[in-house]
Amino acid sequence: MQRRELLKFFSLVPMAGSAALIPGAAAMAAPPPGRRRNLFKELGVRTFINAAGTYTAMTGSLMHDYVVDAIRSGADEFCYLDELQDKAGEKIAALVHAEAAVVTSGAFAGMTLGLAGILTGMDQRKVEQLPHLEGTGMKSEVIIQKSHNIVYNHALKNTGCKLIYVESSAELENAINEKTALLHFLNIEADKGKIQHEEWVALGRKHHIPTSIDIAADVPPVSNLWKFNDMGFSFVVISGGKAIRGPQSAGLLMGKKEIIAAARLHMPPRGFNIGRGFKVNKEEILGMYVALEKYIQRDHDKEWKRWETAIAKIEQAAGSVNGVTTSITIPPLGNVTPTLEISWDATAIKLTGKELQEKLRHGRPSIEIGGVKDNSITITVWMLKPGQEKIVARRIREELMNAR
User: Fold this and answer.
1) Which residues of the chain does CATH 3.40.640.10 include?
2) Quick check: 25 and 19 in contact, CB under 8 A?
3) Strands 162-166 and 141-145
4) Which helix (H) or strand (E) holds 324?
5) Residue limits of CATH 3.90.1150.110 in the chain
6) pTM here?
7) What is the CA 343 to chain-centroid distance, rounded?
8) What are residue 251's DSSP bridge partners?
9) Distance between CA 264 and CA 261 in Å, rounded?
10) Cβ neighbours around 346 below 10 Å, total
11) In 10 A of CB 215, how many CB atoms?
12) What is the pLDDT of residue 31?
């Protein structure tokens, strides 16, 4: 049955007794007043304590109540999508020190849209032609460091561009030609490349080529939200559903005014472009704006101390088991948060990291952890709800003790 026929069918169904005509309606009946439906339980979906981090496969992060409130309030009214993006974008740009900003459907979409804007400018004819670049006069190459070669760079190939990989600044300058549209940088692998942020931007300026940076998961620190805009990158992309704790399907594209304006031509509500599938609704825009605003205002020192206290609790519990050693490190890039590694003597504790992961995963409650090696695991606490560190500490100690 086509959508139009379905609409006609439901318009003819009398309201009284209509539930009997709709398959599954009885099972979907509203719960008694005051009781909230547990849809995960209804659907048979396992939920867990997240001691791993903000992985997309684990649905990123949990939105704060004020973000959920913003989403709910946005669901009550209609508005024009472009006007909301305009007004929210102005506020967001001011918060992140950018000339302009727009809420996107994630950082990946932001990369595609930002490059698309650079390629086409405000020329609608060119917008309609992407990703077909041949014979259009548009540029077609993006230069990236070899050490920054990750799967998410496919976002740039979505425009039809070819990726050119280099290692040194001399190689980069030799690779630049009339086809070069963009110099793209990946922050989380910055320490592996020979060219650092400032030089990358300077090379772009020297050759009058825009520069971009992917900082998808790279807060904290909160200063990263404006650091790279201040540094002079032409556009910056970040995920919204990680540390900022906005909607998981949202992100930000921020940067030069002309690039953001052109990128908007590739976004819904327009449908003649490669970005039509990157739809972001009004609720997500409002939720992303509020999440960003509140994240910047948060007491980050207080939050850090809470993480330290929580991770110390788990470290103490695990370290009390004979044969176990622990260490806390802080990664220099990416999510800069305390990370606990728990290792053990395999001759004293008959348990592999994978086996411990499975025992925690299938225990009550279910717990997911981070990196797993032969005789070690890693834990983070920044996605734990208050008090969950006690549960994680107890369960890890129990399993380690049982395996001695």
Assistant:
1) 78-297
2) yes
3) parallel
4) strand 324-329
5) 300-402
6) 0.89
7) 30
8) 104, 239
9) 5
10) 13
11) 24
12) 59
Q: Which helix (H) or strand (E) holds 328?
A: strand 324-329
Q: What is the pLDDT of residue 147?
A: 97
> Any idea which residue has 């998981």 for tokens?
248
- The answer to whether the peptide bond before residue 33 is cis (omega within 30 degrees of 0) is no
In sequence order, the β-bridge partners of residue 341 are: 327, 378
Element (H, E) at 6: helix 3-12
Q: Judge residue 30's burial from the number of C-beta atoms within 10 Å of its C-beta, 0-12 exposed, 13-18 middle, 19 or more buried.
A: exposed
Place of tokens 């991770």: 311
Report CA torsion sign: 111, 115, 121, 123. Answer: negative
Largest CA distance in the chain: 75
Peptide bond into 365 cis (omega under 30): yes
Place of tokens 């995920």: 239
| Structure tokens belonging to residue 365 | 């409650």
What are residue 380's DSSP bridge partners? Answer: 339
CA 44 to chain centre: 26
Q: What is the mean pLDDT of each run of 10 residues along the chain (404 residues)?
A: 37 38 47 80 97 96 98 97 98 98 98 98 97 95 98 98 98 98 97 97 98 97 97 98 97 98 98 96 98 98 97 98 97 92 96 97 96 96 97 98 94
Q: Write out the two tokens for 233.
A: 């990158």
Tokens 């002309």 sit on residue? 258
Distance, CA of 204 to chain centre: 26
Cα–Cα distance for residue pair 88/101, rounded to 1 Å: 8
CA distances from 257 to 90, 236, 260 (A): 11, 12, 5
Q: How far, in Å, CA of 123 to CA of 134, rounded?
A: 16
Read off φ and ψ for residue 12, nearest 5 degrees: -95, -15
Architecture category of domain 300-402 in CATH: Alpha-Beta Complex (3.90)
The encoded tokens of residue 101 equal 């900003």
Residue 29 confidence (pLDDT):
55
Q: What is the CATH number of domain 78-297?
A: 3.40.640.10
Written as six digits, the tokens of 240 are 């919204």
Question: Which tokens in the block code for residue 399?
Answer: 């399993």
**Contact call for residues 52 and 58 (beta carbons, < 8 A):** yes
CB distance 302 to 157 below 8 Å: no
